[in-house]
Design goal:
Layout (H helix, E strand, L loop, with lengths): L9 E4 L9 E2 L14 E7 L5 E6 L5 E7 L4 E3 L2
Antiparallel strand pairs: 1-3, 1-6, 2-5, 3-4, 4-5
Length: 77
């Protein structure tokens, strides 16, 4: 199976994540809304072909994790 993205590659979210599947980092004090256009990094490639993405803020801190399909992500330059 060919994958468009590799582990640790920087990506941009092209859609809002499904709130049901967002796993917020336990170290953050307040849940931050995650919207389309947020930055992320591929954490894992799941067996079902989806990507487990680490969502990061503008300072580079991890705020959450969420699964995405390949067409829901764009490559960050």
């Amino acid at each position: 199976m060919q994958f468009k993205f590799k582990k640790h590659q920087k990506v941009i979210l092209l859609v809002d994540p499904n709130p049901e599947y967002i796993e917020y980092d336990p170290e953050i004090e307040k849940e931050i809304p995650i919207k389309k256009g947020a930055s992320g990094e591929i954490n894992l490639i799941l067996p079902n072909g989806k990507y487990h993405v680490k969502i990061i803020d503008k300072k580079g801190n991890t705020i959450a994790y969420a699964p995405f399909d390949e067409e829901e992500l764009g490559s960050a330059k």
